[in-house]
Amino acid sequence: MAGHATEAHPHGADRLCDAGDRVYSRAVRRGRVPREDADPVPCLVELALLHPDPDDMRWLVPTSPQEVMTRLLREMHERVVATQSRMGAAVAAFEWYAALGGGERAPAEGVAIRVLDGLPRIRAAMDEATEACASEVLAVQPGGIRREDELSEGLHRALALRGRGVRMRDLYTHVARHGQGLLTYMELMGDAAEARTLDEVTERLIVFDRTVAFIPASPDRTIALELRHPALVDYLVTVFERLWRLAIPLTAPLPDTGIEGITHRERSIAALLAEGHQDAVVAERLGISVRTCRAHIARLSETLGAASRTQLGVRIAQAGLDGPPRSPELQPLTVPGPESPTGR
């Protein structure tokens, strides 16, 4: 029976096991359960059926099942729609190419968009582009802390580029600063590579010599697009350059939020919460886990003196955390406490 296994949960975050059902039922009856009760059943937190109590991080409170069901169904619907869109685009593209087959024009040296299905084909295309690259590589690396295997997988390409004097510029999220793997990688690259970070970046992007770009075409990144159309590549380069100007060099510290007790990451979370995003979306965009995101939200609630999510939204707005950092003369330096007349 599920839930009686001694090993980690074998199932994903799309169903609830018997052990999880018992803990969740107990949480609904009692209003909350101790955090340690949920440790053996991580599916509860992954399904967002339980989340930290903002008033006491040692406890977990239940989420409405209707809310969780709505979220799961919406995510499934979005995946189906995205798949249908990719299928339609692929069919339209190949129909267009097929129509060119009977013409008198000689075939072009390469196609504008090439679908790379499977990691072997993606790696082969990347190796080919690396060998042909002569001057510059631009890369956007989303997500959080880069794993050692992710960095080592492309290390041979980076070393080959450095040996030919190719300049490399990489964009990461701020979270990546906390990984030793990235710091070690940058030391190996020396002056050949430069890295900057942002709260959020786009999906993965790699551009070689501003002539060929690679972007993912599936959520698990097992399908990619190789783009050689000049207009598409120029557009992606422009996006990269604008993000690069906004980003903070890896060697420079992150700016202070200007509000005592609020970290830079908490400011980023507060701004996304103010836009109405759910915890899972906030976590994905900032490159952190949902559990870490909720821990930050609980700390933010404590710092701002908010007793509920609704009150947290009010306090975020009062503290000026609902948008980009303001100029020092406009940004409030204190937050309303529980005794404030606006704190109710």
From TrEMBL:
**In which organism is this protein found?**
Streptomyces fructofermentans
> Which GO terms label this protein's molecular function in UniProt?
DNA binding
State the PROSITE patterns in the record: HTH_LUXR_2
Provide a GO biological process annotation: regulation of DNA-templated transcription
Q: Mind telling me which Pfam families this protein's record contains?
A: GerE (PF00196)
**Record's protein name:** Helix-turn-helix transcriptional regulator
Q: Which SUPFAM superfamilies match?
A: C-terminal effector domain of the bipartite response regulators
The record's annotation in CDD domains points to: LuxR_C_like
- Annotated InterPro entries: Sig_transdc_resp-reg_C-effctor (IPR016032), TrmB-like (IPR051797), Tscrpt_reg_LuxR_C (IPR000792), WH-like_DNA-bd_sf (IPR036388)
Q: Which domain of life is it from?
A: Bacteria
UniProt domain HTH luxR-type: residue ranges: 255-320
Region of interest: Disordered: 319-344
